[in-house]
């Protein structure tokens, strides 16, 4: 059995598989944002990573005949788009070797923003630590009592706590 080798981009803005978080491509690789797939909006990327490809088939698309293959996430095997092997119409040749991914299947992650958010959350959770733990303790004290009323009251507090992290 082969070992699964994954590529992790160090660029700031990457597109990851919505299902499993695997890096599939980056913002820099976008060639065109005007493509459409079964689920709606899709982008054409110059390079994609961590994908496998299906069997090639000739398809008559709105822009002419193309030889295409499905591409799927190597980790969770979700089909996320397709790649062009051959474009038979000369004006469409620029697509050869490139891949289309439907936005429905990917999530944009900007690491600089993510980092800032984490820092903000971290300082917030330190300020609130004391009130959090007493709140959590009182909820814990209520739960074993097995009263329907107290667990209903505790639920919104629990979800609030959850959101802050
Ligand atoms: Zn995946």
Give a description of the structure.
This protein has 165 residues and is of the alpha+beta class. It has three helices and ten strands. It is elongated, with a radius of gyration of 23 Å. The protein folds into two domains: 13-110, Beta Complex (Metal Binding Protein, Guanine Nucleotide Exchange Factor, Chain A), CATH 2.170.150.20; 128-164. Mean pLDDT is 82; it is low at 138-165. The two termini are 39 Å apart. The strands form two sheets. Strands 3, 4, 5, 6, 7, 8 and 9 form a seven-stranded antiparallel β-sheet that branches. Bound molecules: zinc ion. The site of zinc ion (ZN) has 8 residues, from loops.
**Which segments are poorly predicted (pLDDT under 50) over 5 or more consecutive residues?**
138-165
Query: How many H/I helical runs?
Result: 3
In the CATH hierarchy, the architecture of the largest domain is Beta Complex
Computed Rg: 23 Å
Quick one: how many beta strands? 10
- Give the oligomeric state of the chains in this entry, treating copies of one chain as homo and distinct chains as hetero: single chain
Shape by Cα distribution:
elongated
Question: Which class best fits the helix and strand makeup?
Answer: alpha+beta
Main beta sheet: strand number and arrangement?
7 strands, antiparallel
Rounded mean pLDDT is 82
CATH first level of the largest domain: which class?
Mainly Beta
Bound molecules: zinc ion
What's the N-to-C terminus distance?
Answer: 39 Å
Keywords: Metal-binding, Zinc
InterPro entries: Yippee, Yippee/Mis18/Cereblon, Yippee_fam
GO molecular function: metal ion binding
Domain Yippee: 13-110
């Amino acid at each position: 059995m082969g070992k699964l080798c994954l590529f992790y981009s160090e660029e700031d803005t990457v597109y990851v598989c919505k299902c499993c978080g695997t890096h599939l491509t980056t913002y820099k690789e976008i060639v065109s944002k005007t493509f459409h797939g079964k689920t709606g909006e899709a982008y054409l990327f110059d390079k994609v990573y961590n994908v496998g490809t299906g069997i090639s088939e000739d398809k008559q698309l709105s822009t002419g005949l193309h030889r295409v293959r499905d591409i799927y996430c190597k980790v969770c095997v979700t089909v996320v788009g397709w790649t062009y092997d051959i474009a038979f119409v000369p004006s469409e040749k620029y697509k050869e070797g490139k891949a289309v991914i439907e936005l429905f299947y990917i999530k944009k992650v900007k690491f600089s923003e993510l980092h800032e958010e984490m820092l903000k959350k971290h300082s917030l959770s330190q300020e609130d630590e004391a009130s959090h733990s007493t709140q959590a303790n009182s909820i814990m004290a209520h739960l074993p009592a097995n009263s329907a009323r107290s667990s209903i009251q505790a639920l919104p507090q629990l979800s609030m706590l959850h959101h802050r992290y």
